[in-house]
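seq as requested:
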Amino acid sequence: MVKEEMKRILVTGATGNIGREVIHYLCELDQASEIIAAVRNVETAKKKFPSVQNLSYRPFDFENEELFDTAFENVDILFLLRPPPISQVEAVFRPLLLSAKENGIDKVVFLSVQGAEKSTVIPHNKIERLIKSLGFRYIFVRPSYFMQNLTTTLLPEILKNQTITLPSAQAKFNWIDVKNIGEATAVLIKSFEEHHNNAYIITGEENKHFQEVADLMSKVTGVDITFKSKNPLSFYFRKRKEGITHGFALVMTMLHFLPRIQGEPEITDDFYRITGKKPTSLAEFLERVKDEIKPSSK
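struct tokens:
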């Protein structure tokens, strides 16, 4: 039996939705490798992974270049994502990737987004092109719209007002569970040599617009949740008024407006081909999180 090669895999965004799932599945799938969580606060991060055995930690901050070199030392594969508030590709990601290159990393798995290759205005497109231009061997993971947006970004409004307000009108989104993204990504990282210099579109099996999703949420929670569409300009200014940064407000606006002019998302079988499993359905996900998303009845 051939012994598996020991790899050092650095996971950025380790304590976020995606990073946690990538670490969870990597630790299950790849006992031979050292998984390293790149985190702002090591002690705080350790509390989030109490039962994970083969996990080490390194201080890291996307906006602190002084930490890059020590974080990237002796790393074989970098799992890279873009934190939602960070949209400055040249200011943040170029120095980050140059440091990775200078420290001998030549393999990058980047969490992009479905359609990134066609939309030159979004940061993911620019980061993909930057990774290629710097000569990395890469895998681009392009998931569709996260089901977990309903339990994170959109949740405060759902709980407070029983509404979802977005500039998406009747545009359809493809819905994918972050757990599915984490599992597929972990398989791709573990088998990097088989998959490098390719992009994978990780989708669920359903395209639904937000009115359909609000109806499904109402059915699951027993509380009437309504969808309101807003024009993109007023949505952007509403987000700014709520204290959201220009970059994040712009990305949120584009993410929910562009599907109106892009047409219905492609549904792929990439998740099944990578994992041999079917992706989570939206109904299954909502049932799983119904206690989190159930507003108090007015």
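The chain has a mean pLDDT of 92.
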